[in-house]
Amino acid sequence: MTHVSSSENGMTLTSGQLDAYLARIGVGRPANALAILRHTPDGYVALKNDCLRSVTAVSLSEQRITSADHLADTFTAIFNLDVPKSGHVWEKIQTVGRDKAT
To answer: Is the pLDDT of residue 73 over 70?
Structure first.
């Protein structure tokens, strides 16, 4: 069972709860991909693989995550997540990106 947790509010989701939430908002779970969503007072911030997207009612911005350190900083600063092996996550993101390119 996969768990997603955030130290900000003590929230932990099981894989099934995540699937139910994604279905409720009309989004399917990406296969072999990293996907994190955080609501903000003005909209939301989402990370899908190496693309960080900030969305509000009046704006949309995207930023590419460019390294394992950048990813670790994003987990901490934007999503308040402690991911002990973020370097492994970065390697997986790179593999998924290469697979899509072929």
So the answer is: yes
**Cβ of 72: how many Cβ atoms within 10 Å?**
20
CATH number at residue 18: 3.30.1120
Give the angle 47-29-27 at the CA atoms, nearest 5°: 85
| Structural contact between residues 72 and 83, judged by C-beta atoms closer than 8 angstroms | yes
Number of domains composing the chain: 1
Query: Facing residues of 38 across strands?
Result: 45
pTM beyond 0.90: no
CA-closest candidate to residue 39, choices 83, 96, 78, 84: 78
